[in-house]
Amino acid sequence: MKGLLLFLSLVLALPTFADIIPPSRSIDWSHAGILGGIPGDSWPVAATLSPSGGVDDSGAIQNAINAAPAGSVVVLNPGTYKLHRSSKVCPGKSDDGSGGVYQAGLCLTDKSVVLRGAGPKQTILQYGDGANIISMGRTALSASQVGFINITAGATKGSTQITLQNISGITVGSYLTITQTNPIDTDGNPLVNSSGYNGCSYCGHDIPNKVMNQIDRVITVNGNTVTLERPLYLDYTNSPQAFKLTMVENVGLENLRVQSTSSSGAGGTYKNINLESCAHCWVHNVESDWAVDRSHIYLSDVYGSEISNNYVYEGYNHNSGLNYAIYIEYRGSENIIQNNIIRKARHSMVNVGGSGNVWGYNIIIDPYMGEYHNSLPESNSHGAHPYMVLFEGNITPNIEMDYTHGSNSHNTLFRNYVNLTSINPDTGNPMTGALFAINLAYFSNYENVLGNVIGPYGFACTANSYEINANASQSASIYKFGYYDDGGTSSPNASLSAKVGQTVLRGGNWDCKTNAVIWSNNVPSGSIASTYLSQQTLPNSLYLSAKPNWFGSAAWPSIDPAASNKINKIPAQLCYESGLKNGGVFDPKACYDGQVTPQIPAAPTNMRVLP
Is residue 341 in some structural domain? Predict the structure, then answer.
């Protein structure tokens, strides 16, 4: 009994995210992704195909997808498949517009079907016809299709029940977007700005006055009151509304390579893998080579999905708006982007909208901008208004919440290694420009920065300063707060710039400039002591309850500023260094097999497109 009591007392004493981050600034991220893990291993095989050896395999593959029943798998044997057609429209599908989901080489767009290869080094899909390579889900709603419904009660943080003015067409299993008119903060200033210094009329998918969006699923309906699957992330107090999304559920792409053979030339429209209006969908064990245009993997109106164990590499163009590796735009909640290798993107982990998502344990290698080859390029918030997003365990050159297209707030950076290192493609040497590790721009408020290792650990520190603020000289630093237009333009409002540094919450971060782990008791001169936590033990993770099986023998936690060995290689890094780094092939089976105990749910029944 004494032993049991001691065990229970130790368990109860373990720190959780609720112990370190005030509830108003955080959510429970442990439910992100697909409940029970990626399904599909128990699903029946509907068709098995081999490459024809001809110029076009797209018709045969698409016909097999069209004929497959819901909850089944189309298997592609080893070989190279050519997707080459004069039309951009998938066989058997109807085109739905210039930016539509159906403009692709292959479409998984109307039911739950898995397209599965024999592995990225064995099953290769080649496409160069100027559109998306693969589309999954339905087309995301445009502004003209949205039907707003007033929320009359329950729109408060933590609530799982809301009352709607009109319940017509909403049933159990429906998906709703909860939103509000861009709110005012408690200090009387706007919390949200959907303009930025470069404009953002397209934010919120052309609804720039309502850019704080949370997608949720209806699990019960009682009169005009619906119960939601996930609690609301914050108080929606400024004319809260909801609107219905039409989703396709359980669509999967796995174990193959997607290889573009030419740029689309469309200038920012198409993606290698396009997910729209897709719930509990996944891209797993996939290699994507050379982004055709906008991005490698794109998500919009996507809920509870998983992008994991993938390798995405390069793009035809690194200029603005192109080659954003994994990209959440407009709306997307409860998604997990985990254990990916992202190499030579313009920007790697990008949010233009979205909420409640997790970016976990990804490695970012040598990104660069086409216009500025010598400047660290990462922009993680790139438009209004991502919030309650967790970045945990990533290895990245820098983290930037910018103001290019608007604001962001209430995001958390936890146990990342920010190494201030990316290779200039012109010289082959490390970049020497824009060496700012944590950049929180104008209108980036209430951010949490906890337990990170910041700066090249074990190498010469490239930061001249610990912290700089808006309008300061642009000298390399660990933190940069409140800047406008990347610091090239003076702040238009000094108090709003200062608010960024006044509302940040920091603690337990090691940085190469001070060579110390900083808490409230050792705050560097010039920084605001009240924004730091007191010294305490940080939890190992904010979304994983224990070391996951896919970590294998890698150290856990991988990033630990309090330890003598502060950084350890994450699984994605170990996978990269085992072959890809030296010109080898991507083989997730060799990297990760034996480390994951697959969770195999029963095959779904009665799968449908939700109206």
Answer: yes
Q: Which residue has the tokens 């985990």?
A: 338
User: Do residues 336 and 187 touch, judged by C-beta distance below 8 A?
Assistant: no
Question: In the structure encoding, which two tokens stand for residue 94, read together?
Answer: 């109807």
- Give the Cα separation of 313 and 259 in Å (integer): 10
Which residue ranges in the chain fall short of pLDDT 50? Answer: 1-15, 594-611
Same domain, 485 and 563: yes
Q: How many CB atoms lie within 10 A of CB 77?
A: 13
If asked whether residues 586 and 553 sit together in one domain, one would say no
Residue of 31, 67, 32, 27 lying closest to 47 (CA atoms): 67
pLDDT tens column, 542-559: 999 999 999 999 999 999
Alpha helices in 156-263 (DSSP H): 203-206
Number of domains comprising the chain: 3
In this prediction, residue 486 carries a pLDDT of 84
CATH number for the domain spanning 195: value is: 2.40.30
Largest CA distance in the chain: 74
- Report pLDDT for 608: 40
Q: What is the pLDDT of residue 16?
A: 53
User: Is the CB of residue 45 less than 8 Å from the CB of residue 75?
Assistant: yes
User: pLDDT for 60-90, tens place per residue?
Assistant: 999 999 999 999 999 999 999 999 877 778 8
Measured between alpha carbons, how far is 114 from 253 in angstroms, rounded to an integer? 6
Alpha helices in 180-226 (DSSP H): 203-206
- The pTM assigned to this predicted structure is 0.94
- SS3 sequence of 292-347: CCCEEEEEEEEECCEEECCEEEEECCCCCCCCEEEEEEEEEECCEEECCEEECCCE
Same domain (yes/no): 430, 462: yes
**Residue among 479, 462, 340, 321 at smallest CA distance from 400:** 479
